[in-house]
């Protein structure tokens, strides 16, 4: 079956990648004592949909290419996903761990059981947990297909029930669940729950599956309720900002404490993720200006590599700023974001070029062989 290409997914990937860099720029901006709460809100609150929406896109892509009516070969599916996600995850984890050992002269992370924890929980770098959760979603794909098959029978009611359960579960995990168990491994498992508990993002993943399975109805609903979708997005974004400013100005929270309270797993954060997902899909299903379409297409095309490499860029860029005694003022933070984006995109291009010359590099770092290699391999098979 030919995979249906939906350009809105490319645009969403690109936008989400821009948002992820914004979130991590916000964390670095806290090094400046007088960080602007408004710029920080742009970096850290407006962008909060960025990681969850990747799960929506992943599920949508899987179910649009392998709908429930089609045969599903689980072993073949897992082989492809291990190649596209597990290999890059392991390769980049090793690279980040080697980098840490090199700059810190500390080899402790390679000792047992620490090395196991680093690989199991995605601790080598702060962005890698996404791949760990994604691998768990892939491993349980037969379960999600069965659940989606049940939900599409009554999608509106079923999704509302699942959404309510998601909010309750996330609230308990985010604000009530604590460590302090006698068992070391249980403590570690709970401590790093955000790095591998797929249930934190179950709703948005299943929403992607259902929207793909009912794609014509989904398109019609977005068109029919386009005004309501915009209002819902605006109201939930307003709710995120209202909560954020409330904690800062009325509760006297620090910027970091405020954003650690008003995040994507908070009740309003879950609703904002849904609102943003529907809004951006609706918006990107209509023609865009040429420059915006080009930008989002390029970001979407290289989003995987940019996501994997940008923490390295940020670390060394910030180290150079620190060495030069340049504080990360609000204007410098914006420049830091733009330079990070440019350098990360450039590195993504270089890695792609290197992969075209050495296919095994491409396989290890991106999870796929370069197009030229695949075309050559296909040609040889037909001769």
UniProtKB/TrEMBL annotation:
Topological category with respect to the lipid bilayer: Multi-pass membrane protein
Superkingdom of the organism of origin: Bacteria
UniProtKB keywords: Acyltransferase, Cell membrane, Membrane, Transferase, Transmembrane, Transmembrane helix
Cellular location(s): Cell membrane
Membership in a protein family: Belongs to the acyltransferase 3 family.
Name of the protein: Acyltransferase 3
Signal peptide interval: none
The keyword Repeat appears for this protein: no
Annotated GO CC locations: plasma membrane
Domain Acyltransferase: 7-347
Transmembrane segments: 12-33, 45-64, 85-103, 115-138, 150-174, 194-216, 228-249, 261-281, 302-319, 331-351
Family matches, as Pfam families: Acyl_transf_3
One of the GO BP terms on file: enterobacterial common antigen biosynthetic process
MF (Gene Ontology): O-acetyltransferase activity
């Amino acid at each position: 079956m030919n995979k249906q290409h939906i350009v809105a997914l490319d645009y969403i990937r690109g936008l989400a990648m821009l948002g992820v860099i914004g979130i991590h720029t916000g964390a670095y901006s806290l090094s400046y004592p007088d960080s602007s709460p408004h710029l920080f809100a742009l970096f850290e609150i407006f962008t909060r949909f960025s990681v969850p929406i990747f799960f929506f896109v992943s599920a949508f892509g899987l179910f649009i290419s392998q709908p429930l009516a089609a045969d599903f070969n689980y072993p073949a599916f897992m082989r492809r996903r291990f190649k596209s996600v597990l290999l890059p995850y392991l390769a980049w984890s090793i690279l980040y761990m080697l980098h840490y050992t090199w700059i810190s002269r500390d080899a402790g992370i390679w000792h047992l059981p620490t090395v196991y924890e680093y690989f199991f929980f995605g601790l080598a770098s702060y962005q890698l947990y996404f791949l760990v959760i994604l691998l768990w979603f892939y491993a349980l794909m037969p379960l999600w297909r069965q659940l989606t098959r049940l939900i599409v029978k009554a999608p509106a009611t079923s999704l509302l029930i699942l959404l309510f359960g998601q909010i309750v579960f996330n609230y308990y995990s985010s604000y009530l669940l604590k460590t302090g168990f006698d068992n070391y491994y249980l403590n570690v498992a709970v401590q790093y729950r955000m790095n591998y508990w797929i249930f934190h993002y179950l709703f948005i993943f299943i929403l992607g599956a259902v929207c793909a399975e009912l794609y014509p109805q989904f398109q019609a609903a977005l068109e029919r309720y386009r005004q309501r979708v915009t209002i819902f997005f605006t109201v939930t974004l307003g709710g995120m900002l209202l909560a954020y400013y409330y904690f800062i100005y009325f509760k006297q929270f620090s910027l970091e404490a405020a954003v650690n309270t008003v995040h994507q797993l908070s009740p309003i954060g879950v609703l904002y993720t849904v609102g943003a997902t529907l809004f951006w899909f609706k918006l990107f299903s209509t023609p865009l200006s040429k420059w915006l379409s080009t930008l989002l297409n390029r970001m979407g095309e290289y989003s995987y590599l940019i996501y994997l490499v940008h923490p390295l860029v940020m670390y060394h860029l910030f180290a150079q700023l620190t060495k030069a005694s340049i504080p990360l003022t609000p204007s410098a933070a914006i420049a830091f974001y733009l330079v990070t984006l440019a350098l990360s995109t450039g590195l993504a291009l270089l890695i792609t070029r290197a992969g075209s010359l050495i296919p095994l590099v491409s396989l290890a770092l991106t999870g796929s062989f370069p197009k030229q290699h695949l075309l050559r391999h296909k040609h040889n098979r037909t001769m």
